[in-house]
Amino acid sequence: MEEIFRKMPQYENDLSKVVQEIKDISIKFEATDIISNTVSFGHLHSTEQRPPLPGLKTVNFQTGKLKVLFTIDVKSNYNSGIFFNDDIVITDWDQKSVIFHDNTGKQTGVLSVQNDPTDITKVNDQTVAVSSDAQKFFIINVNPLNLIKTLDISVPVWDYVW
């Protein structure tokens, strides 16, 4: 502990330099009716700005408390996941599947997809879009998990959401 406290001014200086280089990039997705419009999901609008830097705040980790509600054992080499309403939806590259976990962490559904899923994003309160490196988007109803449609696209997709 003494070593950490002794080096604290240097850590704060290094952190301050790194924080000044951080950029806040946001993507806004405007959804369209995915059932009747299979040409596109909508429009992406990108903005970039520097986040406000009101100063570094000192936090005493010795007095803080963290409570782990549950853990999910993920064994795949490449996964993506989102919080979906009160639940969690995860893609599993190795098993070519989308996995639904309820708000207690219990796995309650698995949907196999025909290609390796690379990323996932929420479309609305019932639906997610899952991208694939095989030039496909899967539109999936979440509860219960079922494939609504598959959209062919012209390029492989990695990291659909940022």
Tell me about this structure.
This protein has 162 residues and is mostly beta strands. It folds into two domains: 62 residues, no CATH class; 95 residues, Lipocalin (Beta Barrel), CATH 2.40.128.630. Helix content is 12%, strand content 40%. It has one helix and ten strands; from the N terminus they run αββββββββββ. The strands form three sheets. A four-stranded antiparallel beta sheet has the order 3-4-5-6, with no helix packed on it. Strands 7-8-9-10 form a four-stranded antiparallel beta sheet, with no helix packed on it. A two-stranded antiparallel ribbon has the order 1-2. Strand 5 and strand 6 form a beta hairpin. It starts with a helix and ends in a 10-residue tail after the last strand. The model has no long low-confidence stretch (mean pLDDT 75). InterPro entries: Quino_amine_DH_bsu.
